[in-house]
Design goal:
The protein folds into three domains: 99 residues, no CATH class; 103 residues, Immunoglobulin-like (Sandwich); 51 residues, no CATH class. It is 45% helix and 22% strand. It is built from nine helices and eight strands. Strands 1, 2, 5 and 6 form a four-stranded antiparallel sheet that branches. A four-stranded antiparallel sheet has the order 4-3-7-8, with no helix packed on it. Helix 4 packs antiparallel against helix 5.
Length: 301
């Protein structure tokens, strides 16, 4: 798991950035921050480096969640409900707590006004329903929840990504047609891939769509977004983020025959940094620990 990191005292800044990137990547996959700290500690990283890197990763996620939390608080949604939703979406509890706490301070002054508006709307809506309920025909109303099928899945370019969509009928209509559209977006909103299909929704429906990750997709965070169009122009939406890894270059992996002291010595003479890259290619191999030992030997020399 930690094959991409070799501790080096001469490059602390680079190491902290690499550690932060590692933490961010695995937080996207659903790992907990406290668990990642324990893993890094067991693998020999200092408390100082872990603290700095974890702080950077937490700040990244707080900044990422802030616009969403603000929008929900401004709508009058209670912080507890936002908190529960984000936990169900596999965000780290500590980060969610700090993000909501930070956002609540800036929106606190708006809360009384928002609640007043909500109460008025509820009163007006209640009166309208009371006088018109007998004349009202069955209407379509639904909600959708898009979520990951496997939070620990490693996503790479050139593959298809499968996920789950739950469509729930909340209205009086027994069944109605829905057009589902699935998007893979970058963080700027650019469409990387898109697919659509039409389904009839009755009580509830579970869909298992998939999107294609292009071969040239660069490593980073992306958005899976789902829209459901139904009724008279009504739309329901849901989204979550995924982390796409860098595509593995199979041709660069070394074989057991090449794996010798002479091979490492020759590489280290010309380019010591290349020794580290060799070990990265063996991160999932049984040879990894032996590779690390040899790499550290030749780098130290």
């Amino acid at each position: 798991m930690l094959g991409t990191f070799i501790y080096c005292n001469t490059n602390m800044l680079y190491m902290n950035e690499e550690l932060a990137d590692y933490i961010i990547k695995h937080l996207h996959k659903g790992f907990r921050l406290s668990h990642l700290k324990d893993i890094l500690t067991k693998h020999g990283f200092t408390k100082k480096d872990i603290k700095i890197s974890a702080k950077k990763a937490a700040e990244y996620f707080i900044n990422y969640l802030t616009p969403y939390i603000h929008s929900q608080l401004n709508r009058g949604l209670h912080p507890h409900l936002i908190h529960q939703y984000l936990l169900q979406s596999n965000y780290d509890p500590e980060i969610v707590h700090n993000a909501i706490k930070q956002c609540s301070k800036t929106t606190k002054s708006k809360t009384p006004f928002i609640f007043t508006i909500i109460i008025l709307l509820l009163l007006v809506g209640g009166l309208f329903f009371f006088f018109n309920s007998n004349q009202k025909s069955a209407t379509a109303l639904m909600d959708i929840i898009a979520k990951k099928m496997d939070i620990y899945d490693e996503i790479q370019p050139g593959t298809e990504y499968n996920f789950k969509v739950e469509a729930i009928n909340l209205g009086k209509a027994k069944e109605f047609d829905v057009k589902f559209t699935y998007y893979l977006l970058d963080m700027d909103g650019k469409v990387i891939d898109m697919k659509s299909e039409s389904k009839a929704v009755s009580t509830s429906t579970t869909l298992l769509p998939k999107l294609t990750i292009p071969e040239d997709t660069i490593r980073g965070t992306y958005i899976i977004k789902v829209t459901a169009e139904y009724g008279k122009g009504q739309i329901a939406e849901s989204e979550f983020t995924i982390y796409i890894e860098e595509k593995r270059k199979e041709s660069t992996k070394i074989t057991k025959q090449e794996y010798t002291d002479e091979y490492f010595e020759e590489i280290s003479k010309n380019n010591p940094e290349q020794v580290l890259n060799i070990c990265k290619e063996l991160v999932r191999s049984e040879q990894y620990s032996k590779c690390i030992s040899k790499a550290q030997k030749y780098i130290s020399e």
